[in-house]
Each structure stands twice: as C-alpha cells, then as structure tokens.
Design brief:
264 residues; mainly alpha; two-stranded antiparallel sheet; 11 helices; 44% helix
C-alpha cells in the first residue's frame, strides 16, 4: 500500500491513483448507489484507507463534473478540487486508454490480477506473449463498457423497460469498427435487449437526437407477420427511450446512426 495510507483517515489529500479508482467505481455504479452504504463503496474505502462517506462524497463530486448530468440540471457536490477536475478530464477524454489502466490499477490494489477481477478464464488464453495481452485487453474493455452502460441505465432496456441483465446488451451507437477512439465511451452506448439491438445494428430501428424511437417503414412490408411486427416494433415507434441516469447518449452519435445506418 502507498505510504500515504499510514496517515490518519481524513488528513491526507486524495492521490491520482485513488481518484482513478474512484472514477472507475463511478462508472460501474448506478447513480442511485453513489452513497456510503453501497457495498462497492465500502470495499473501495477499505482498499484505500478512507471512510465510505469520503469515497461516496468523491463520487458525488464526479457526478457534478459529468456533462450529461449537467445538461439535465442534476447537480452533485460543489467542492470539487483542481485535481478532481484534472483526473476527470483525463479519464473522460481518453476512453480508449483509461478504462483499461484503471482496471489494472484496481487489480493491483486488490493484490490480484486483471484476469481475476474480470472473470477471464485462464484456460481461454495463451500462456504469454502479445496475443495474450491483446486478448486480455479486449475482454477487459468489453467488460468495462458493458458494466458502465448497464449501470447507467439501471440494468433496464431503453426500448422495452426489460430489467434482466442476462437478456441485455451494451450496444454501440457508432459501431465498434468505425470509431476506435469512442469504443469505450459510455455516451456511445445504450442498454438494449438482443432483438432490438439486432434491429438497431441493421438499421431497422434508430434513436433520434431527441431520444425518440423510430422504426423503419420497411418492416411494414412484412405483411405475413404484421401483427408480430406491431407487437415487437411499431408500438414503440415515436416513443421516447428510457433515459439513463448518467452518460446520456451523445447527440452526434445518434445523428450518425440516423443518417448513415437507419433504413428510412
């Protein structure tokens, strides 16, 4: 443990590493769990030698810096430090790098490996080498993105309201292969069930920049299954999605999907 942890709780300034761990946790928790009684908050407090209240307060500080919350008029704590803002901006502007680095740091503080904390089966990996490193990084990043998106949407499908994590997908608005720098950006993601994710991916469904669902008119041509289409698709047409509690979808990404992917 860093030597600074030997000091009494509440007397030492937060370090860069501690703040990165706190942002990592902020991403992984639903907005309603940013409080001292949450088990993950208690656990992080124990890891870094701070009180759960101190960790919870820092999470609320980060909420005050989240632009998607600011846009909705949701305010967090107002006493953010200069370092809070610097680390937040560093993380927020480097989604392609910082999530993985934060997971490595979390594993270090847990005295374990990044594979263990991400439930990656060693039997599925080469023993060593660059191929192993690349495979681990991809799996870790995918896990981080999924946890962040599902937490932001409170484990709820944004189309149907389905609340079953095993049936939900953390879908990309702008596809993984098109925009590498935003692959892990949570504002490029939506929590969605598998059926509607496939429709979104193929352009049969989109979400407008004002967060309304649009169903492709081409589905109306499926006359043999029109009742099924009405039940699973058209009843959602023009309805607003269930918005996340943080990390609102970026309007720029939604505009891209409307203009480049949707079959109008």
């Amino acid at each position: 443990m860093p030597s600074i942890l030997k000091m009494k709780q509440g007397q030492n300034l937060w370090t860069r590493e501690e703040l990165i761990l706190a942002i990592n946790l902020y991403c992984r928790l639903s907005f309603g769990k940013l409080h001292r009684n949450t088990s993950e908050v208690i656990h992080l407090a124990q890891l870094i030698g701070r009180t759960p209240s101190s960790v919870a307060y820092k999470l609320v500080n980060f909420a005050s810096l989240d632009p998607s919350l600011q846009a909705r008029g949701i305010k967090g704590a107002q006493n953010t430090s200069k370092l809070d803002k610097e680390i937040w901006n560093e993380f927020y502007l480097n989604w392609d790098k910082l999530p993985y680095e934060s997971e490595k740091l979390r594993a270090s503080f847990e005295h374990t490996t990044i594979e263990v904390i991400n439930n990656i089966d060693e039997a599925e990996l080469p023993r060593e080498g660059k191929t192993r490193e690349q495979m681990v990084k991809v799996r870790v990043n995918q896990n981080f993105f999924r946890r962040t998106i599902l937490a932001a949407y409170n484990y709820t499908c944004c189309i149907t309201g389905l609340q079953n994590a095993s049936l939900l997908i953390a879908g990309h608005i702008k596809p993984w292969g098109i925009d590498e720098s935003n692959r892990l950006n949570p504002r490029n993601g939506i929590a969605i069930n598998a059926l509607h994710d496939k429709a979104f991916e193929t352009g049969l469904l989109t979400i407008t920049p004002d967060y309304k669902i649009r169903i492709s008119p081409s589905l109306k041509e499926q006359k043999k299954s029109i009742e099924t289409m009405r039940e699973y698709f058209f009843k959602y047409d023009k309805k607003e999605i269930i918005l996340p509690s943080k990390f609102l979808p970026d309007r720029e990404f939604l505009e891209y999907h409307n203009n480049e992917r949707f079959i109008s």
